[in-house]
Amino acid sequence: MAPKAARAALRLPGPIRRLKVSSGLPGVPRLSLGYLADIIVLRDAWMHRVDISQAAGTPFIVGAADRAVVEQVIRDLAVEWTGPGVVLELTGDAGGRWQLGHGPPTAAVRADAVEYMRTLSGRHDTPDLNVTDGPPETAPLLADARVLF
Asked: What is the predicted pLDDT for the residue at 60?
């Protein structure tokens, strides 16, 4: 159903796409309908795929689109990140390496990409964040971060 939803989102007229609406969540700014349709609805469907895979005890098969979802989530995290400069290395087929924060990184942290997405969505409170370089206090900052799904 995701491709059908993506096509429907593209048909929203520009003026409607630019309308700002409340997310209904504390601390989350008003979002454009275009952003909700293009990003959040599809990201939410992706996370439900992860949830169903875990509930059914089946492996989560990662494809090219999954890496694009992870990249978009990390871009949103980087926009909101107020912590120290960090190199975040996400492992697995959907992983990659990103720098968060401004200035030189003070730490490097490694985590599984899909599990960290679950953390950012608020579904996983005890992620396995491995600080490979820098102060260990960096891990709790990344564990407490949240991104809208």
From this structure: 93
